[in-house]
Design goal:
This protein is α/β, with parallel strands linked by helices. It is built from 5 helices and 8 strands. Helix 1 runs parallel beside helix 3.
Length: 174
């Protein structure tokens, strides 16, 4: 697995890089060497936030954890990704390498979930700026908002992150 570590407002100690590489080998049984892992560390008050994103084929697995200790936060992120894989075992098994789930686990695998759509909503997308979309989202009291970006004409989604900041999702045309 290829690992890229980025730090915001802090330095990444070499010992942590080695620790992260060692811990991420837990995911090798699912992804092999072809996966890309991106780890972002940031300091926030007395805590460290770790964001771990693993990309394999066309699938993304993401976990974020805040803790006083960066090693604890990383361990929790890895555990969350493993739980995501186990929870959605049958759905992701086809996309992951063959025999990824032939290993026996001590923990019970959760039953396959069926998602029930309880509401279907259509609305007209009108061009607006990202700032206007965030304002609309906040006025509606939603955690996300889909809109047509006035700058590029693309359909985008803005959303509120757990840390209170905002992010935007844009289609990749590459």
């Amino acid at each position: 697995m290829k690992l890229q570590i980025t730090a915001k407002k802090m330095q990444v100690p070499q010992s942590f890089t080695e620790y992260a590489e060692k811990k991420l080998t837990k995911l090798d049984r699912f992804f092999g060497d072809e996966a890309d892992a991106k780890l972002i560390m940031s300091a926030f008050k007395d805590d460290i936030t770790i964001e771990l994103t693993v990309k394999y084929s066309n699938m993304f697995f993401r976990a974020e954890q805040r803790a006083a200790d960066k090693e604890d936060a990383l361990d929790a992120c890895i555990d969350k990704i493993i739980r995501q894989i186990r929870k959605n075992k049958t759905k992701v098994e086809k996309s992951l390498r063959e025999n990824a789930f032939t290993e026996q686990y001590d923990e019970t695998v959760e039953e396959q979930q069926h998602y029930e759509i309880i509401k279907h909503k259509k609305f007209t997308l009108r061009p607006m700026s990202v700032e206007e979309a965030i304002l609309q989202m906040n006025m509606l009291g939603h955690s996300f908002f889909m809109f047509k970006n006035a700058e590029n004409g693309e359909v985008n989604v803005v959303y509120r992150r757990d840390d209170g900041n905002y992010a935007i999702l844009e289609p990749d045309r590459g």
